[in-house]
Amino acid sequence: MTVLVDMWAYLTDGGNWSGSGGMLQLLGQQLLLTVTALLVAVAVGLPVALWLGHLGRGGFLAINISNVGRAVPTFALLALLVTADFPGTDTLGPYGRAGLATLIALTLFALPPIITNAYVAVREVPADVVQAATGMGMSGRQRFFRVELPLALPLVVSGVRLALVQVWATATIAALVAGPGLGRVITDGFFRTDYGKGLAGAVVVAVVALVLEGLAALVQRAVRPVPAGPAAGAAGRVEEPDGHGHASSAPGVTASSA
Fold first, then answer.
1. Using alpha carbons only, how large is the chain's radius of gyration in Å?
2. Residue 241: in which H helix or E strand, if any?
3. The dihedral formed by the CA atoms of 78, 96, 163 and 36, expressed in degrees to the nearest 10
4. Is 242 strand, coil or helix?
5. 188 alpha-carbon distance from chain centroid
6. How far apart, in Å, do the first and last CA atoms of the chain sit?
7. CB of 185 within 8 A of CB of 34?
8. What is the C-alpha separation between 215 and 153, in angstroms, rounded?
9. Cα angle value 95/47/56 (rounded, 5°)
10. Are 70 and 109 in contact (CB under 8 A)?
11. Which of 16, 133, 155, 210 is the most buried (most CB within 10 A)?
12. What pTM does this model have?
């Protein structure tokens, strides 16, 4: 009970939030680490996974290579990186001491859910929809951008959402190599047996994780295709003239994907 009181006292003390080394500054540093690592992982992994899903081959190899990151603990990878000649422990601008090593470790940690979800999302687009788009004369590029990607987008965003929360929580390991972020509050608190301080840092990390999860869930909901009712479906289908001069509908392909 005393630890909880100490934690509350630390969180409600404005001096702990402001100034150099304050909670707000450390929170901003950890957000910067998280967002940068996530953007790099998205830029590297997403195009490859989407394209392999579109081609329908090579995904097994890509997924298994990316999943190697699941088998190697992120802290163990970080320890190897900081003890090597490169990237080592050099300071990298706002990313702090061992900034490049931390970013590499976090980026590799973010890749598996992004690659797996993106590949599976494209592969699970209904075959009849893809066949209908092909029958309408769409090229492979048109079929991907107009049909496959819009339908796969919710699951793709789900992978990014999972990676975001995981990387945010894991970014606290930067403190173990004297890097920035809220991990410094946690490690310093427990090192000095100031458990209230350590727990306060952990609570802030948990609360921000919930906020990020909620925001990502809203984005995922926003990109989800709106189910069309019978009337809307009839109005939204693309009509092609048949051989007798009548309009025929391509099943499963709506006007937005034409």
1. 24
2. strand 237-241
3. -130
4. coil
5. 29
6. 62
7. no
8. 16
9. 145
10. no
11. 133
12. 0.84
CA neighbor of 110 nearest in space, from 182, 173, 34: 34
DSSP H or E run through 252: strand 247-254
Please tell me whether residue 249 adopts helix, strand or coil conformation: strand
Tokens of 200: 């306060």
How high is the mean pLDDT of the chain?
85
Average pLDDT for 136-144? 88
List the structure tokens of 204: 């802030």
Using alpha carbons, select from 18, 34, 9, 17 the residue that is nearest to residue 181: 34
Q: Which amino acid is located at 217 in the chain?
A: A
87 upstream amide cis, omega within 30 of 0: yes
What is Dmax (Cα atoms) for the chain?
84
CA distances from 70 to 10, 75, 165, 170, 175 (A): 35, 12, 15, 13, 21
Amino acid at 79: A
**What are the tokens at 40?**
């790099």
Residue indicated by tokens 């109005």: 235
CB 160 within 8 A of CB 223: no
At 204-252, the pLDDT tens digits run: 999 999 999 999 999 999 998 766 544 344 333 433 444 444 444 444 4
